[in-house]
Specification:
single chain, 218 residues, alpha/beta, Cobalt-precorrin-4 Transmethylase, domain 1, Methyltransferase, Cobalt-precorrin-4 Transmethylase, Domain 2, 2 domains, 6-stranded mixed sheet, 5-stranded mixed sheet, 11 strands
Length: 218
């Protein structure tokens, strides 16, 4: 019997935002795979654990995804090999990913390698960070025919709503460009997590913020 790989989106941070299907798949899995940090399970695992405490009883596969630029193919290949070994043993593997697996996720670096080796994978959608931020701010991202642009760490003078993810390293420069544009800005740092901070105007936004920060510019 061949195992199946499930990419499970655990949402942006609040454990209560895991979908029923995500909880079901985590409970069903024989093995849980997730990115590691300093030899410990990463943020996605900690979120899932709060919703599914029994996850600690499962085999945990820690995968190395360095957060740096450059050619990371060897890391992806090694991670895929570790998952393939479990699949070949007939184990179902739940790969935990923040937000939604189809949106800036590490999962799709592995998907082709899994498929090329003859194994199936399925996607379990999760709530993306920008949706959670919109709710936290009580601010619609779009109304009527208003358009939305989503970027990773980049500012554009855009006519509709601009959502910038991963703003931490470029925040000071982005703030200066927002100020010059005359637009209004909002930011949520660590949305749904214990360290959450909400900023409702540009002057209150600090020059530095954590990796899990989302800017909304109207």
């Amino acid at each position: 019997m061949r195992g199946i790989l499930y990419a499970v989106g655990v949402g942006p941070g609040d454990p209560e935002l895991l979908t029923l299907k995500a909880v079901k798949m985590i409970k069903k899995a024989d093995c849980v795979a997730c990115p590691q940090r300093n030899g410990e399970p990463g943020v996605a695992y900690r979120i899932a654990k709060s919703a599914v405490p029994d996850i600690e009883e499962k085999e945990t596969l820690l995968l190395d995804f360095p957060m740096r630029e450059g050619d990371l193919k060897e890391f992806h290949k090694k991670a895929a090999e570790q998952i393939l070994l479990r699949l070949s043993e007939g184990k179902n593997v739940a790969f935990l990913t923040l937000g939604d697996p189809g949106f800036y996720s590490t999962f799709f670096y592995l998907a082709d390698l899994i498929h090329e080796n003859g194994y199936d994978y399925e996607i379990i959608n999760g709530i993306p960070s920008f949706s959670a931020v919109s709710s936290r701010l009580k601010l619609p991202l779009s109304l009527g025919d208003e358009s939305v642009m989503i970027t990773s760490g980049e500012f554009f003078d855009y006519e509709g709503t601009l959502v910038i993810l991963k703003v931490g390293n470029n925040l000071k420069e982005i703030k200066e460009r927002i100020s010059s544009s005359g637009k209004r800005a909002y930011m949520v740092e660590n949305c749904g997590m214990e360290e959450e901070h909400v900023y409702r105007d540009l002057p209150s936004i600090p020059d530095e913020a954590g990796y899990f920060s989302v800017l909304v510019i109207k």
